[in-house]
Each structure stands twice: as C-alpha cells, then as structure tokens.
Amino acid sequence: MRKVMASPLRHRTGVQQSFYVFLFISLACSYNIDLEHPLVFQGPSSSFFGYSVLEHFHDNTRWIIVGAPKANSSYSSSVRSPGAVYKCRVHSNPERRCTEMDLGRGNKPRESCGKTCQGDRDDEWMGVSLARQDRASGKILACAHRWKNVYYDSEHILPHGYCSIIPPTLQGRTIPLIPCYE
C-alpha cells in the first residue's frame, strides 16, 4: 500500500518543481537589462547615491534624476547631511557626470515655515523619494521624509516631511511643499 501512495506523491512533487523552475526562468527572462551597453553613473561615497532613480525627458533631452539621501549638499553646506538630488544627462555625456540640483533651499539649518513652524533640515534625507508627472514636460517631485517641524520652538518635534516641486526644465525656482503641515 505504501508503494502505491508514494508514486503519485513523487509525481506531484516533480510537476511542482518543474512549475517553479519554469516560473523562475520566465521571471528572470522578462526583466530586460541591457548588459552589453550599461550606463553607469556614480555619486559621492556614503551618500546612498541611487537610492531613488527617475527617468525624465524634456526638450529632446533624456535625463536620469538620482536621489542621494545622505549626501552633503553643496548648496546647503551648513546643514548636516541633508541629502541631494542629481541630474545626469543620458546622451552626450561621455564622462557620465551628474550635477547636483539647486533646490533653492538656502544654507540655513533652521528656518521659519509658518506661524507654528520652525523647520529642522539636519538629516532630512532629501531625494529619498522621487516622482514625475506622467505627461510631456511633467514636473518632478523630490521629497525628504525626515524633515522636522520644531513646534513652537520647544521640544515638540513633528516629522512632517518636505518636498520640492522641480520644473520640467530642471532649472529655475522650485516650489516648496510640506504635505503634513499645509
């Protein structure tokens, strides 16, 4: 009786293993990366460069927007590790250089952002998340989820998060957005 029961069980296990192998191969083949001609961009060490990546297209130019949430920003040198967002041109960039974007935030570690708001930018992780409007000439949203509001200049710290709305040209004035405060 045991020999009769063991045979269907082995057959079922073999079919199941074959299914898993087929599933693994189909998943591996469906993810297409160009291994022959990769584009490799590098940023500052220990900055988490590449934590978030976004493809952007404007005026017949392709860009890769890269978040580096632990970077020291050259535009905010007095702020401790605020993070940064970089733009990297895809074509006509043989050195594969990326340029830090000026989000217009200035060099102040703390600044007033409303009647009951005193923003703390140290370790805010700018560039931890990136999003883009899904249309031609769409704007980009770069966020720092660890930006804090020191409420009424006391020990009450509210982690609201901060975002910058970047124009499609990747130049000019950005628009601030504090989602949990406004």
UniProtKB/TrEMBL annotation:
Gene3D superfamilies: Integrin alpha, N-terminal (2.130.10.130). It comes from Characodon lateralis. GO terms for biological process: integrin-mediated signaling pathway. Keywords: Integrin. This is Integrin alpha-9. The keyword Oxidoreductase does not apply. FG-GAP repeats lie at residues 32-97. The gene is ITGA9_2. InterPro entries: Int_alpha_beta-p, Integrin_alpha_N. It comes from the Eukaryota. SMART domains: Int_alpha.
